[in-house]
Fold this sequence. Notes:
Elements: H1 3-14, H2 18-33, H3 41-52, H4 59-66, H5 70-82, E1 86-90, E2 98-102, H6 104-122
Antiparallel strand pairs: 1-2
Amino acid sequence: MDASTAKESVVQNQRPGIGQLGQWMQTLVDYVRSGKPDLTNRQMALMMTVYIDSGPHTVRGLAEVLNVSKPVITRALNKLSSLGYVRRERDAADRRNIFIARTPKGAEFLDAFHHFIAGTARDEPDKHPRADRSA
Length: 135
């Protein structure tokens, strides 16, 4: 065992899970370098909530689920709407209500993001060049 491997082993024993964090860090760095839209954690949580949980979704409901204020949700929705990942729709039964709806572009983004994360997390860094891991 060389000195570098021994040091890594000691660090992992002292800090369990550090290997997974390093892997996640590399995945995030690769994603940032990919040039794809850089969403905040709140925007991504909002996006996943809309796409994974059954609707209908409202600003008030999303604020409650994510435990943030309605203005925070509105700002995140503005960004996601400008990217075409979600859209606001008026309730046909009560025009005062606005629902947050999924879009094909948003579904494509999440599918590509999923494949990017899953592919990067599985890959050995020395087996695949960085360019091969972008999706």
